[in-house]
Automatic annotation (TrEMBL):
PANTHER family: BIS(5'-NUCLEOSYL)-TETRAPHOSPHATASE, SYMMETRICAL, SLR1885 PROTEIN. It comes from the Bacteria. InterPro entries: Diverse_Catalytic_Enzymes. This is Hydrolase, YqeK.
Amino acid sequence: MTLLEKIIFLADYIEPNRSFPGVDTVREAAERDLNEAVRLELQKTIAYLVAKQQSVYPKTFEAYNDLVMKNDKKTNEVTE
């Protein structure tokens, strides 16, 4: 995802009129780290869809995996 895509994606999820379990956690994360907030949003969306036995769009998994792998790579670079 580009920076603009992340901002738009996240803005829709955390807009002030939304209230559902976990949205405040994502809002707080958005103030600290955009990538972490997007990862949390994707994680919560995937978990919700799985719990409801709904299909998950492949690009959703792709976006989640991309963020996780980039974070893992960054973490490994810091610890090495």
